[in-house]
Amino acid sequence: MLVALVPVALIGLATGGSRRLRWPLAGLFLLLAGTWAVLLAEPGPAAGAAIRAGAGLAPLVLMTAGLVVLPLALVTAAFALTFRPPLPPDDRHEGDR
Amino acid sequence: MSGAVLAAALGSLALMAALGLWAAGRTRTASDFFIAGQRLGLWVTGLGTMSAAFSGFVFLGGPGLTYRIGVASLFIVLPVGFTAGLLCWVVAGPLRRLAGDGDVFTLTDVLARRYAGPWPAALGALATVVGTVGYLGSQLLALGLVLEAVLGTAGPLGAWSLPAALGAGALVVLFYSAAGGMVAGAYTDLAQGLLMLAAAVGVFVWALGAAGGPAAIVGAVSADARFAGFFEPFGRIGPAAALGFFWVFGLGVLGQPQMLHKFFMLRDPRQLRWMPLVLGGSQAVCLLVWVGLGLAAPAFVAQGRLAPLERPDEASLAVLLGFAPPLLAGLAVAGGLAAIMSTADSFLNIGSAALVRDLPRLLGRRLADELRWGRMATVGLAVAAAVLALAYGDLIALLGTFAFGILGASLAPALAVGLNWERVGPGAAAASIGTGLGLTLLLELVARRGGFVALAEALPGLAPIGGAGVPPAALALAASFTVLMVATWAGGRRPSAGPTAGEPR
After folding, report:
1. Residues B448, B446: Cα–Cα separation, whole Å
2. DSSP letter at B88?
3. Does the pLDDT of residue B65 top 80, yes or no?
4. Which of A78, B42, B147, B167 counts the highest number of beta carbons within 10 A?
5. pLDDT given for residue A93 in this prediction
6. Could you give the angle at the alpha carbon of B360 between the alpha carbons of B359 and B366, nearest 5°?
């Protein structure tokens, strides 16, 4: 789950553990980690059977929805809603903390 | 060869050369040349960042890699769901703040300002030059393949066809990069980004329809033993390699100068608010070309409409030039050329800045005419990259991933963590950059060269990119992060000698 945890931890570090970002970042972690968990849990032979049954695009849809579409929507909205312009050096620690 | 395709290709090259000429008149200072005078808006910066990041790798290399390893190749690009936000939260603000604070044009400048002592900046500049030559090589290889196919030089020129096509394309990129610097780069990137988006959407819709729709594609490819496991998420490379791809491209993005460099050019930091939407949204749309052509090529082969490909990198061109309507093929070829050239010109600019500005300054010297030397350095870099491209002898995506990995493993930890945690000292940063650079080169050599078989066998999880193991760059990136954190903690609570991005010096 490092692939989900490290990006979220870096954002948390960069934003000083902003309270306003707590839930969006938790959501991002759950999305990434959850999608990976589902993908990793899917056994190969079963996936092969699903493909032969005509559901071959299911993993592709899961990958793009869980790792691209939903995280992008979440990240875009969270960033825009919590955005503060980069402050001059002296004011940096007086921002949204 | 259709006249429309040829006209689109030549028109695209001519348009970029014209933009270079126009921009040359607006390039008067080193600031203009290296960071476009810091006067770009949201759309120019956002779409320029997308087009600099997405290159021949996406238009040619991606479908080629999909042809070889199946949908698992997408783990290279799936991180775009969060990387735009990650970039903006973690590095865009600090970089823009530093750029507005004086003579900061490059990532080496950032490292020099953030960390005391010469080592972090010197190693950063070295990693930038090495990564630049690698990434530029992958772009020139893609450019050569496109021009070779469009101009039909393979028959008349034989073995000299690819070198000749590669050289011709490199001359155009060199012309507008050397003449116009980053002013040309920024505006050509915008034009190229718009072209890439139009081509990606058009190609995706057409490709799925031409291959008979999703159900027909799945049916044909799944029934063909040559593509066994194609649709399974990890079917053809295994979970370790897929996770490695996602790790390298999800976090390595924080060390990519072709993207980070764009944040220096933003006129107003307040425009960052919508940057994740513009950057991430345009990247997601552009991925359609990877998916569309990546599914269509094996489907056409499985349906017996296309002969099996000897070189997977030919997948995009074989589908487009063999089956697409001439106008769409022309648009796609122009979009592909745009993708390649936008990344190539960004790297020419970044590499020349490292050679002409950064390294001499770190050696205590300053060139009298950086603008003139910068233009000359672009020529040297292009020649070195062209030689590497011709000597590498493998897929575009593999050379591109190797270069991306070098930059990510070397620079991402020292920038992403160091710009936001004042406790990171110059020793930890230098150790991390050195580890990332050295380990990526070493492991790549171990994974690819027969002379290191014993060492490769001692590291059974290691595999060349596209094999069933962890990509070398993923291990190097993890090691680089680990070294930075361990060295920082071991260094005690002593604050570093240099400021973090937002701290007063």
Report:
1. 6
2. I
3. yes
4. B147
5. 44
6. 145
Residue B229, helix vs strand vs coil: coil
B131: number of CA atoms within 13 Å, CB side?
A: 33
Tokens of A77: 């909205």
Q: What is the pLDDT of residues B119-129, one digit of tens each?
A: 999 999 999 99
Q: Give me the mean pLDDT over the B351-380 stretch.
A: 83
Query: H or E element: which one contains B186?
Result: helix B161-210
> How far is the C-alpha of B336 from the C-alpha of B342, rounded, in Å?
10
Q: Is B224 on the interface with A (CB under 8 A)?
A: no
Number of helical (H) and strand (E) elements in chain A, helices listed first: 5, 0
**Binary contact (A76, B276; C-beta < 8 A):** yes
Residues 6+ apart with CB under 8 A from B45: B186, B262, B263, B265, B266, B271, B275
CA distance B28 to chain A (A): 29
Nearest to B295 by CA among A52, A56, A69, A43: A56
Contact A2 B239 (CB under 8 A): no
Q: Where are the beta strands (DSSP E) in B63-188?
A: none
Residues 6+ apart with CB under 8 A from A46: none
Does residue B115 sit in helix, strand or coil? coil
Q: How far apart are CA B387 and CA B399, in angstroms?
A: 13
Burial group, residue A70, by CB count within 10 angstroms (0-12, 13-18, 19+): middle
Which residues on adjacent β-strands are paired with residue B462?
Answer: B470
C-alpha–C-alpha distance, residues B302 and B292, integer Å: 16
Q: Which residues sit opposite B40 in a β-bridge?
A: B266
pLDDT per position as a tens digit, B68-121 = 888 889 999 999 999 999 999 999 888 887 776 667 778 998 999 899 888 999
Our CA-based measurement puts residue A17 at a distance from the nearest CA of chain B, in whole angstroms, of 12
DSSP 8-state secondary structure symbol assigned to residue B462: B
Backbone phi and psi for residue B470, each to the nearest 5 degrees, phi listed first: -80, 130
pTM (predicted TM-score): 0.85
